[in-house]
Amino acid sequence: MADPSSRDITLRDGRTLAFIERGSPSGAPVIYCHGVPSASVEANLIVDNDVAAALGLRIIVPDRPGMGRSSYQPGRRIVDWPRDVVELADALGLATFAVLGSSGGAPFAAACAAQLPDRVRVVGLLGGVAPPDAPGIRHSLSGLMRMMLRLARFAPLVLRGLFRLNLRAIRRGGPATSRRMVAWAPEPDRRFLQRAAIRDGFMACFIEACRQGPRGAVADFALIARPWGFDLGEVKTPALLWHGEQDRNVPVANGRYLAAAIPRCRATFYLDDAHLSVPLTHQREILSALAAASAAV
User: Fold this and answer.
1) 6-11 LR contacts (CB < 8 Å, sep 24+)
2) Architecture in CATH for domain 7-296
């Protein structure tokens, strides 16, 4: 379900852009680009409000088009997202800000850093995906992920149907759904997913991504499955990267590629962590590094 604190702005083209905030309202701003398929409620799972506030950070999490409460945008591209971010920042009175992209949100955060060098102070990439045409990346992905990316690009209606079936299974609930989720995860993530609150929060991200139907989430998959429309070498702002060596959702080969391709990237790899355990275990460290890098620029 949507966060009751969700707010929105009307963009110049008439679309609605919804967002939620975490941390300190007067803190240093960080615009967080959620994963795929997900929505702004990801902040309820990933962002510890007290930690963010204690570190003096204001974390703003917008729903990308067609997910959560943000309007669908036909024909959108990854490189269109920075324009929405600029309008959001202007509406909130933010001259400069950091961006943080998690998982499938990493390309959108990187696009902001590449296209908005005068606005973005630092970019953070958390368990981020690499471009699909990067050497070895496609083969590093699980069979399920390769299938979803291929369907999103070439047969989106089929993937929409699969997402609807998954939604139906989640809403019916029951222990079988939870068991499948926990069994698939690598051990570092499995420990967290055995907690009902974490498990429910993870499923809530998918449900909210499909609030308006699955086409927005499927479009997000299609965008990261095709060329992104910009070169990672164009990211000139300082970059921080964190990735778990045991990540099965986004294998560590993705993080290593991003770290090598982005010119000013400082990377941290966690030997004993996976996709979900990195932000849940190392959040204070990650947000502290982001705050320090943002202040130093």
Assistant:
1) 6/40, 6/68, 6/69, 8/69, 8/70, 9/87, 9/88, 9/91, 11/84, 11/87
2) 3-Layer(aba) Sandwich (3.40)
